[in-house]
């Protein structure tokens, strides 16, 4: 089975893909550490600073900042690992080389990511944002409604950041998925996921919008000056759209269209006749249906193709069998009895030596019987050469070469025997090619038949040094030869060199 | 090629996508004036809703609070004045699709472009002109009264433009959604080598739309929040952001489900159709994005597979044709050569016998020879018949089957209700199927084996029923079924095997054209 993956990795995927083999053993821990660090030292202080203008002027903000950071340390150091390590355990064990069900690993890398992110985001919203608001609200004399609105606004920044991490973690786990995909059972059927592509895309927009709206409004509140407010609004919006909005949507649209590209590549390769092409069934979203349909279709097409090939092979072998049977019947049921009759007529002739008229009559009858014998013998050989059944390809071809009108040399350094179907396919092709040579190559032509075993194949070549001109009859004969050889899994080519002869070159699996 | 199948298959799922149902409804109501209606509605909404709202959010940037609310009215009036020109530009640029909708002659390629690839450019042109006029004149009016500095002008203008970009993206999205059904209708009439891609692919479009809409949110939310005192500000920020998010996300969800879910569903349907062997389908490229590449790859694959399968079928048919030809040749050789020789021998032995009456010690021998010879001649005839009955070509299937039945050792009942001749390939395929069944019956070690052969014709089909009573063992039945399937399959026919009582019936059908 060939699992089709997108052709070229986008830069963000290739970053993770390159890091993956180097830190494989501690992959999950490393990224948890990096994400935790990013949140704690970048996102969390940034959120505090962004929201500060919105609370209005107040004292003790340094204390509030310290409290916030302490909450951040607790969540990032305790709650987040606690939420993540359990669900991601199958991945950790897989990467450590412990025996683990691939379906569990898949489940952890695909399904658990949104859950882990949701738990982490919730803990930042509850354990982080509520203490933060309590600390900053006290000195500013917040009412209950102020607390509520302040908390809502803070969560509008925290939640998009959480979704951002869903997307990043999905990219981070893709190298694991690439490794696990071939190990999944063939009938692996991921049930429907809530986080479909359409919803994912909507969530991406919502995140970018919510983050930008809140962040820019809050920053603008820092000033009462018209020009500065406008400048902040424009620049902060542009910055936020370019970074947060751009990155998030790029990730989402990448995750949608990467899989579309995979489908396309798979279709192209199936069309080109590559066997065993399948696409990975991924995340229980809209494209999984198409992926499963594609795999089903590929199986069906392969089965149809195999059935048709098998049918052709059977028909060819039935036709061979019939010829063999005809030959046997002609010999055993007709020729043998005819020989007996010939012997008896001979005896009758011997007894009639004294009577010239009768003797002459019986001699003529004996001669006619002998002629019939020769005729049937010739016929039987044409139907299916006895040598082919008894002694194999080389014997049959050398007998044929001797009888051919065109002088023929056989070169076959001990090719041995194959099964009936392949031997007779090769025999009849060579025979047909030699007959063509006798008919079309010209009077002075000679032919060479070469048999050779190489790389699990039996190669055969019939070359003449005649005029090398293609005729219609030869074209049809060529089709027939090719059908015969392809029916046993081989192939054949024919080359005409005007003035330089015709070469039929083919092979069958040996 | 049944393009319709794929479309029907997709249509079965369309009802689930709600915006599509709305589009269908509106289209049914407006009929030929669908596009005009769309443009008119857009003009009305821009002038009456989105321009006033947009400038309401910017108002606090210019003056403190919302006291001079009538500035908004100035912008709305300016938008209304510009609206007819903007609508005219849209209608002129998309005249192919209006012509198509009104039933006039239109080049499908142009209509498709109007619905898919030309929309972003139209949006850019129209919004630049329209909002340039409205925002430019409006801001000069406001700035004059509010003593704007050059920096204020620049900031206010930039903020307005950022908001406009998002609004335009929203309308663009609506237009794409509304024109998608038309694009799909036209796609079926596109030339087969049509290979045009939208420059704004699905990947880029998502990024562009989201960036654009983020511009709007940032500038609108911050503008509004400026208008409120410290107390209400957090509420305004939260509510405005949430409101904008939900409006836009709703539209975006429908767009994504239209531009992702539907092509995926269609593709799945087409793949399933191929997977279940219900004939070959094609998926028309409709949207100019990545899915069109998939559709093209799919169509090319189906073409190649069809070609490949028909090659194989032809190869199989040729094999049979050659094998049958060879048998016929052998039979002719037997008839013209060996059988003539034997006839001569028979005659000579007959003469010998008649003149040998005078030689008593030889006569019995000659008689033995003669008896043996006639046995050989009989054997020859039988053999020739098994190889290829001469009567099949000359007199047809019925006569050949009667001869085969006569020579068979088992009880054969023939029920042939056919008085036409079929093609040679069909007749010999059926004949050799019957012959094979007779042959197997002859070989069966059963005293009262019986064979029924029924042959009839029904509209373009040759129907042959072969009953073997009692049936052979299961593995032989399977083997025989395979043989019959191969033989009739090579001429496009089918066979099924049924057990009936202790016997087996093979029901075969072969197309006779």
TrEMBL record, chain A:
CDD domains: HAMP (cd06225), HATPase_UhpB-NarQ-NarX-like (cd16917)
Reactions this protein catalyses: ATP + protein L-histidine = ADP + protein N-phospho-L-histidine
Keyword RNA-binding included in the entry's annotation: no
One Gene Ontology term, aspect cellular component: membrane
Pfam entry (one): HATPase_c
Stored PROSITE patterns: HAMP (PS50885)
InterPro entries assigned to the protein according to its UniProt record, in alphabetical order: HAMP_dom (IPR003660), HATPase_C_sf (IPR036890), HATPase_dom (IPR003594), Sensor_HK_TwoCompSys (IPR050482)
A GO molecular-function descriptor: protein histidine kinase activity
Cell compartments where the protein resides: Membrane
Broad class of the protein's primary localization: membrane
Protein name per its UniProtKB record: histidine kinase
């Amino acid at each position: 089975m060939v699992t089709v993956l997108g052709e070229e990795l986008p830069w963000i995927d290739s970053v993770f893909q390159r890091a993956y083999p180097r830190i494989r053993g501690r992959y999950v821990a490393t990224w948890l550490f990096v994400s935790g660090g990013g949140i704690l030292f970048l996102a969390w202080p940034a959120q505090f600073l962004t929201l500060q203008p919105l609370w209005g002027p107040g004292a003790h903000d340094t204390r509030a900042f310290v409290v916030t950071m302490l909450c951040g340390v607790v969540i990032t150091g305790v709650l987040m690992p606690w939420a993540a390590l359990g669900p991601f355990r199958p991945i950790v064990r897989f990467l450590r080389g412990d025996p683990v069900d691939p379906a569990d690993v898949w489940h952890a890398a695909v399904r658990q990511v949104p859950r882990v992110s949701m738990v982490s985001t919730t803990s930042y919203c509850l354990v982080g944002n509520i203490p933060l608001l309590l600390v900053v609200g006290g000195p500013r004399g917040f009412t209950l409604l102020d607390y509520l609105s302040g908390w809502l606004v803070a969560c509008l920044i925290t939640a998009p950041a959480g979704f951002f991490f869903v997307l990043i973690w999905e990219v981070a786990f893709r190298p694991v998925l690439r490794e696990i995909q071939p190990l999944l059972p063939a009938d692996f059927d991921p049930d429907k996921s809530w986080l479909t592509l359409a919803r994912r895309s909507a969530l991406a927009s919502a995140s970018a919008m919510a983050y930008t709206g809140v962040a820019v409004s809050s920053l603008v509140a820092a000033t009462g000056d018209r020009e500065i407010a406008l400048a902040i609004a424009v620049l902060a919006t542009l910055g936020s759209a370019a970074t947060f909005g751009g990155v998030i949507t790029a990730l989402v649209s990448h995750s949608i269209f990467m899989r579309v590209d995979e489908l396309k590549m798979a279709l192209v390769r199936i069309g080109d006749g590559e066997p065993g092409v399948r696409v990975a069934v991924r995340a229980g979203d809209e494209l999984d249906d198409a992926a499963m349909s594609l795999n089903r279709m590929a199986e069906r097409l392969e089965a149809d193709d195999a059935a048709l090939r098998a049918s052709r092979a059977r028909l060819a072998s039935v036709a061979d069998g019939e010829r063999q049977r005809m030959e046997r019947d002609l010999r055993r049921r007709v020729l043998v009895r005819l020989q007996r009759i010939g012997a008896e007529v001979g005896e009758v002739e011997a007894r009639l030596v004294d009577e010239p008229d009768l003797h002459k009559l019986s001699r003529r009858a004996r001669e006619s019987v002998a002629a019939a014998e020769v005729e049937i013998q010739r016929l039987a050989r044409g139907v299916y050469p006895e040598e082919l059944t008894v002694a194999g390809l080389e014997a049959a071809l050398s007998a044929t070469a001797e009888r051919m009108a065109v002088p023929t040399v056989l070169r076959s350094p001990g090719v041995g025997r194959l099964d009936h179907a392949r031997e007779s396919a090769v025999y009849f092709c060579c025979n047909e090619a030699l007959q063509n040579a006798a008919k079309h190559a010209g009077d002075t032509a000679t032919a060479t038949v070469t048999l050779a075993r190489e790389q699990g194949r039996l190669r055969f070549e019939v070359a003449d040094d005649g005029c090398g001109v293609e005729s219609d009859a030869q074209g049809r004969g060529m089709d027939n030869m090719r059908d015969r050889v392809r029916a046993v899994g081989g192939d054949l080519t024919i080359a005409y060199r005007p003035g330089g002869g015709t070469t039929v070159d083919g092979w069958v699996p040996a | 090629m049944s393009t319709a199948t794929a479309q029907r298959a997709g249509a079965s799922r369309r009802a689930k996508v709600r915006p599509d149902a709305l589009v269908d409804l509106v289209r049914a109501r407006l009929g030929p004036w669908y596009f005009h209606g769309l443009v008119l509605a857009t003009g009305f909404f821009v002038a009456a809703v989105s321009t006033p709202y947009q400038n309401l959010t910017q108002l606090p940037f210019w003056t403190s609070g919302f006291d001079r609310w009538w500035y908004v009215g100035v912008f709305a009036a300016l938008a209304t004045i510009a609206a007819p020109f903007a609508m005219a530009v849209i209608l002129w640029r998309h005249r192919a699709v209006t012509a198509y909708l009104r039933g006039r002659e239109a080049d499908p390629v142009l209509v498709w472009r109007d619905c898919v690839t030309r929309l972003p450019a139209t949006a850019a042109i129209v919004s630049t002109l329209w909002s340039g006029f409205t925002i430019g004149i409006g801001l000069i009016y406001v700035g004059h009264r509010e003593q704007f500095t050059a920096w204020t002008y620049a900031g206010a203008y930039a903020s307005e433009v950022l908001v406009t970009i998002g609004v335009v993206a929203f309308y663009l999205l609506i237009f794409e959604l509304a024109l998608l059904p038309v694009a799909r209708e036209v796609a079926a009439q596109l030339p087969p080598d049509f290979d045009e891609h939208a420059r704004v692919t699905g990947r880029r479009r998502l990024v562009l739309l989201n960036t654009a809409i983020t511009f709007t949110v940032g500038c609108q939310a911050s503008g509004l929040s400026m208008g409120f005192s410290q107390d209400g500000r957090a509420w305004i920020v939260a509510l405005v952001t949430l409101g904008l998010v939900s409006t836009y996300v709703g539209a975006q969800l429908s767009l994504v489900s239209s531009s992702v879910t539907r092509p995926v569903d269609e593709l799945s349907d087409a793949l399933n159709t191929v997977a279940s062997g219900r004939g070959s389908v094609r998926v028309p490229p409709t949207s100019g994005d990545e899915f069109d590449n998939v559709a093209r790859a799919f169509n090319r694959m189906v073409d190649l597979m069809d070609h490949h399968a028909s090659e194989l079928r032809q190869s199989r048919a040729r094999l049979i044709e050659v094998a049958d030809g060879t048998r016929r040749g052998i039979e002719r050789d037997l008839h013209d050569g060996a059988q003539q020789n034997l006839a001569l021998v028979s005659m000579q032995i007959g003469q010998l016998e008649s003149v040998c009456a005078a030689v008593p010690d030889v006569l019995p021998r000659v008689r033995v020879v003669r008896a043996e010879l006639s046995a050989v001649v009989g054997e020859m005839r039988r053999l020739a018949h098994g190889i290829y009955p001469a009567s099949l070509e000359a007199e047809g299937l019925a006569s050949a089957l009667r001869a085969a039945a006569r020579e068979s050792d088992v009880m054969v009942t023939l029920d042939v209700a056919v008085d036409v001749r079929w093609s040679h390939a069909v007749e010999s395929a059926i004949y050799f199927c019957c012959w094979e069944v007779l042959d197997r019956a002859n070989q069966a070690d059963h005293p009262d084996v019986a064979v029924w052969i029924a042959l009839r014709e029904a509209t373009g089909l040759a129907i042959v029923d072969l009953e073997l009573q009692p049936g052979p063992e299961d593995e032989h039945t399977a083997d025989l079924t395979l043989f019959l399937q191969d033989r009739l399959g090579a001429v496009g026919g089918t066979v099924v095997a049924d057990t009936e009582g202790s016997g087996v019936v093979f029901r075969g059908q072969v197309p006779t054209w």
